[in-house]
Amino acid sequence: MAAADPSGTEPTPHHRMLRASAPPDFLDSAHEWRRLFAEAWGTFLLVVVAAGAAVVAARSNGAITLSMKVVAPGVMVMAIIYFMGTVSGAHLNPAVTLAFAARRNFPWSRTPGYIAAQLVGGIVAAWFLRSMFGIEGLLGATTPGAHISDFKAFVMEVLLTTGLVSTILGTASGARNVGSNGALAAGGYIALAGLWAAPISGASMNPVRSFAPDLIRGDLSTDWIYVAGPVLGAMIAVGFEWIPRLLQQATWRRAERPGPRRMSEGKCKRRAVSARVSRDAGRAQNATSRTWTNVECSRIRRQGFIRITAGRVRMAQPAQTQAAISREGAPLGMGCPWPEGYHSQRRPGKLL
Predict the structure, then answer these.
(1) What are phi and psi of 294, to 5 degrees?
(2) In the chain, where are the structural domains located?
(3) Exposed, middle or buried by CB within 10 Å (0-12, 13-18, 19+), for 127?
(4) Whole-model pTM?
């Protein structure tokens, strides 16, 4: 197929396909409706799978095991990140959206819209499950396990969500979960957390995933665990993100702080002795030595190497080096440019 003239106005079909498949700018407010729809649709799929696994397990008399129930949401999150991560960022969780906003990757002005879209998607998913199967398996609601107090379930949700949000923040691109790293990390963590913590608290880690079934079945008695716990865990994860940054900034400030630089008299004498150079010996060594590359010569000039004796290069003080350069025309180095007018009959002398 012949392509259009590059100088013309009609683009080639290949270029049209590239432009058509390019995702919209994540910060462009004109495409916000697409992002909100993607968040609602993605959260709908997540709640249908997460809550629906428990509903179908109850309806099928245990045909779906606990391992299947906890792995299914992780695989669903993985798939959602792959197919819509570039559109909305695939937050799917109010705790994740708040974490991105607290880390200053996501505008606070867009946070209410995202959370509202997630609530709509989750509530519609819970209503769909009720209309299909009735109140089977508590409609997939997350509740504390047997002999587990509400406080212990709350602590577990805080811990699990801290790990989840830390994983997401570490693999996300800005405020978006995109690519294989984000999909595998987030989906794998959700499955892993459910495998060992589901009997304790249900391993929700998502306020919408717990609130939507509770709202549709009309029981909000334990809902505070699954709203306050994930939100608190997300903020703790953001705090863990900021601690290394603050420590690094404090280290930089200490390093940049000027301090006294003193040198003992003995060290000054040793430095003066090491700066003495035999130029004839240096030139003879240069003739028998390998040629230095331009990169090495540049490093010599930059660091102030000015002395060559028996093949050894020594460094002088920067101020003395500058004085030598201004007097001689260039610093000395094997294979590097020698001062203009230099000849082998010149007597060895003190360069600095």
Answers:
(1) -65, -35
(2) 30-246, 266-350
(3) middle
(4) 0.66
